[in-house]
User: Which sequence fits this backbone?
């Protein structure tokens, strides 16, 4: 069994946030546009989760809604995530 450190978890969430931000910007949406589109009233969650600030991150429901709004598959957010079995990047999903 492979041990997963807190550093691995932090990198995982940070990578997902970076991917959400990259795709959001590619699609021409602001943080506010995205927040409102997924039913939030402000950019608070989007802004901190994209940067993984104070260990705030997106949950699965957020990612599901964000994928729908950005017209991508949810797996696009996991591009370049470190493989927890080998601790090597990246994991590429089909």
Assistant:
């Amino acid at each position: 069994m492979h041990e997963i450190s807190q550093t691995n978890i932090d990198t995982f969430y940070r990578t997902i946030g970076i991917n959400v931000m990259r795709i959001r910007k590619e699609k021409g949406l602001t943080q506010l546009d995205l927040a409102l589109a997924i039913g939030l009233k402000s950019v608070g969650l989007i802004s901190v989760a994209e940067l993984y600030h104070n260990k705030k991150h997106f949950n699965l429901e957020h990612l599901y809604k964000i994928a729908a709004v950005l017209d991508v598959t949810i797996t696009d957010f996991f591009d370049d995530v470190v493989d927890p079995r080998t601790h090597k990047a990246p994991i590429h999903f089909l």
In short: The two ends are 25 Å apart (CA to CA). The chain is about 50% helix and 5% strand. The chain has a mean pLDDT of 88.
